[in-house]
């Protein structure tokens, strides 16, 4: 399965914000490494929005905005337990994005140096041609 161009761009945009990367890092670390305990017994691997907020030292509204962007991109699962919202990473989407990134750009990455060298010589030659006129 591959991602549509629109979905690929949505995920890339969601991952382009350093705050969202930090949030993903916190969720990946989980409670074992956060030095906190979940407010209620919940989903395996999930972290409560309240603990993300505390770790990030950010207002709840700002954390919720970033979590919503990550969730809309399909990068997070949300589980509600009572008044608590827990978030876990959607590794299926992460893998699809990684595979799509590699599929779209891996071959081009191998030849970038050659293309750049060739483009540079073309530009230099073109500039020289115009100056000679």
- Give the low-confidence spans: 125-133
> What summary fits the major beta sheet?
3 strands, antiparallel
CATH architecture: Orthogonal Bundle
- The count of β-strands is 3
Written account of the structure:
- It comes from Paenactinomyces guangxiensis.
- Residues 1-108 form the HTH arsR-type domain.
- Residues 112-133 are annotated as: Disordered.
- The structure is a single chain.
- The chain is mainly α.
- It has one domain (5-105): Winged helix-like DNA-binding domain superfamily/Winged helix DNA-binding domain (Arc Repressor Mutant, subunit A, Orthogonal Bundle), CATH 1.10.10.10.
- It is 68% helix and 11% strand.
- It is built from 5 helices and 3 strands, in the order ααβααββα.
- A 3-stranded antiparallel sheet has the order 1-3-2.
- Helix 3 crosses helix 4 (60-72).
- The chain starts with a helix and ends with a helix.
- Mean pLDDT is 82; it is low at 125-133.
Keywords:
133 residues, Arc Repressor Mutant, subunit A, 3-stranded antiparallel β-sheet, 3 strands, disordered C terminus, HTH_ArsR_DNA-bd_dom
């Amino acid at each position: 399965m591959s991602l549509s161009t629109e979905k690929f761009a949505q995920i890339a945009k969601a991952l382009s914000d350093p705050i969202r990367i930090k949030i993903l890092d916190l969720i990946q670390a989980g409670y074992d490494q956060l030095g906190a305990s979940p407010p209620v017994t919940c989903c395996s691997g999930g972290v409560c929005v309240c603990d993300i907020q505390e770790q990030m030292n950010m207002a709840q509204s700002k954390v919720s905005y970033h979590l919503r962007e990550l969730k809309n991109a399909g990068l997070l699962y949300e589980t509600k337990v009572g008044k608590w919202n827990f978030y876990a990473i959607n590794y299926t989407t992460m893998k699809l994005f990684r595979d799509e990134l590699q599929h779209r750009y891996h071959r081009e990455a191998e030849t970038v140096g050659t293309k750049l060298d060739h483009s540079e010589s073309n530009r230099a030659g073109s500039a020289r041609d115009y100056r000679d006129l």
